[in-house]
Design brief:
With 600 residues, the chain is of the alpha/beta class. The chain has 20 helices and 15 strands. Strand 13, helix 10 and strand 14 form a beta-alpha-beta unit. The radius of gyration is 36 Å and the shape is elongated.
Amino acid sequence: LTKKERAAGAVVSPQEGYVGLAEDFVGPQDSNAQPEHVALTDQIRLLAAKAQDEIRSNPTGDACKNAMPENMENLLERVHLETATSKTKMARVAVTLQGKKYLVKVGSDWVLAGATRVATMSTDLSNLQSDSLQEFNKESAMGTIEVWAKEGYRVICVAVKPVEELPKEIVEDEVGDFGEDFIFLGCLAIQDPPREDVAENVEIIRGAGVVVTMITGDNPITGMSIARQIGLAADYTEEDVKMCLINASEFFHNMEEDQAKKEIRARLHHSMTHKKGLIIGRVSPFQKRWFVEVAKQMELVVAMTGDGANDAPALKGANVGIAMGNGSDIAKAAGDMILVNPSFAGIVEAIRAGRLGFDNILKFLLFLLGTNVSEVVIYLTLTFSDIVIVLDALNLLVLNLLTDGFPAIALSLEQAEGDLMKRAPLRRDTSVLNKFTYMSITITNLALLVSYIVVILVGNEWHLGDMKGRDTGEVDDYDKGLDKTRTMFILLINISQLLLGFSHRSPDRSVFSVGFFSGKWMNYASLSSMGIIVLFTHIPGLKDIMRTEYVDLRSYLLVAGASCFPFIVHEIAKVVFFQRFNYSVYELYKYEYSEKSSSD
């Protein structure tokens, strides 16, 4: 959602406002700007930078390192470092600063635990004086952090503890000397602006019926601010904020997994019922997995994004794990797909491509099954009715290639319809062969059968003197008459199916609503198919191979009318039946969240 181009904007003192790191920087209205840098602000930046891993890179750590004052690195010696993790939310460091020994905590507001005093702008760690410190007030400090978090800043807190001797090592998961008597120095406010296209894509994906939930290790207030900026939480009511904004570290503190999952289910139920995504902050890897597991138990289809090793369990558990292309190898291995362009727009385009693929497969199958079944039926009917079958194997092969193949390929290349990303998602059990497709296939095949029977019987009567096409001796040249009937039938199959190809560009609405000639590939396919068929049936030499013959005007008019009949029937069925009664695959099988899912 954000650019991942984090940069420190200001050093914040919990007592006396902030100092901007750029001349034009403007902080929140509820915070006072200080005119110039002092020793404390530079020391906060230095300590924040030295608490970062110099080997592994991450956006927040890089922002802290880039904020380090020039020519100050040699003033500090880092003796021990325990980097921040998704579990600890803070780094612990043992340093020597200009001969003074300090234990340092750098990270989230968890740093405030154990603080007893707070620094002022006159505090200088190189010559720490007790009269420059004040009594620590956690409520006041958290209020300052909240002011910046509401503006979308990631707030990195820094606290120190002066000691006589540094520990020999920092033991993981042991508090040790990092418990009490810390001095809260202040914060580094880091900006991470949203991507320019995120708001537009959030609107698109919400319109597509997808509920977007934000899960972050940051302060949930920061997450809510960013969510409001990008339109994800712009319309949240007080009740929505109460149910959807979750500080996971506090909310699930000392809570058993079963109870936690019950709470998650209630929050997800509100989220799905009101179409408002959850904003979850301070979340741990196993808590992310909880959300995925509960959502799947509620029969929701879960797509999870992530780029770090701590995201791997949730990526693995989701229906679709989407790893970022610039993420860790562990995340990529756990994901089902890798987003090469790590942006929200890429996810939207993936959904669009998936829906377009389904649409075009549906059109492809509707066309092929909606035209070929009638051909099989008419041949069986002619055989058992003792009516002459006018088409031979070569005719069938040419028609199959030109009349079936070209339009079917064109339908598979169709562009997206205008409402593609405005439809509700389809249910997971939706098949391209369903009630709608069976109805559509039946309608087109029945209409084609009527046209085929009429043209064959009338053509036989006109050119052979017998509806069944038998040689009764009533015509002088029986073979020539048979060739004329064959010409009529070939043209009928070609034109009628090409027209149905156009009609199937919009399976459940009139093709005129999307523009009859708006599909360039169908235009090319139809012109090519009809052009080749006309050549094969009318050019001397070629027509001898196909065994066709020129016909009179009334035969062409009959073919034209019979060819239009299936198209007209299909278009009327779409307008009168499919649209009026919402009888389409997108209505019959659309996903609708129900309360039953949340209580199963």
